[in-house]
Amino acid sequence: MNQPKPFVFPLAAGAPFDATIFARAMNMRGHGGFIGLEYVAHGDDWIEMGLPWREDLVGVPETGVLASGPIITLLDNATSLSVWVRSGVFRPQVTLDLRIDYVRAATPRRTVVARAECYRITRSAAFVRGLAHDGDPEDPVAHAAGVFMAMEPGA
Predict the structure, then answer these.
(1) Does any domain span residue 80?
(2) pLDDT class for 154, splitting at 50, 70, 90?
(3) Residue 29 has pLDDT above 90, yes or no
(4) Which of 40, 55, 82, 97 is deepest in the core (most CB within 10 A)?
């Protein structure tokens, strides 16, 4: 009987962080991989991730509007990755607080893009903000604000 290979996390705490490699690897597995998250672009303190529209991610079939869960996952992943982009190193972290305000429903059959930035890092916390849109950042689907807490190795 073939046993699946155990997942080996690609980075150790303190390792240099490369958003293009990490985002692609992370989104091949787990929840992000299941819903099809994609790396789009990044800068010094921000990252963009995409969520292509798929029929199986629709919340109400009559409308074709994406369910809220995949958009929450998109914003959670993008805001989390923005911390590592800004710091340039990987440190295990947990979502301490993530607030998502929906402004409107996503347009059916459009990719939703999240742009997240980490605007401050302290010794134990990182502060992030972001938005999700389906083509026009001036007409967002949702806004996010959150705090991630750094975990010490072995804690």
Answers:
(1) yes
(2) very low
(3) no
(4) 82
Number of domains composing the chain: 1
DSSP state at residue 12:
-
**pLDDT-based confidence at residue 155 (cuts at 50, 70, 90):** very low
φ/ψ of 36, rounded to 5, equals 90, 30
Mean pLDDT of 22-27: 74
Please state, rounded to an integer, the average pLDDT across all residues of the chain.
89
| Domain residue limits at 135 | 19-52+60-150
Which letter, b or e, does each residue of 1-39 get, where b requires 16 or more Cβ atoms within 10 Å of its Cβ?
eeeeeeeeeebeeeeebbbeebbeebbeeeebeebbbbb
Structure token pair of residue 33: 């991989």
β-strands 112-121, 125-133: how paired? antiparallel
Report yes or no on 1 lying in a domain: no
Contacts of 17 (CB under 8 A, 6+ apart): 11, 84, 85, 87, 88, 89, 90
Q: What is the CATH number of the domain that holds 90?
A: 3.10.129.10
pLDDT tops 90 at residue 87: yes
pTM, two decimal places: 0.88
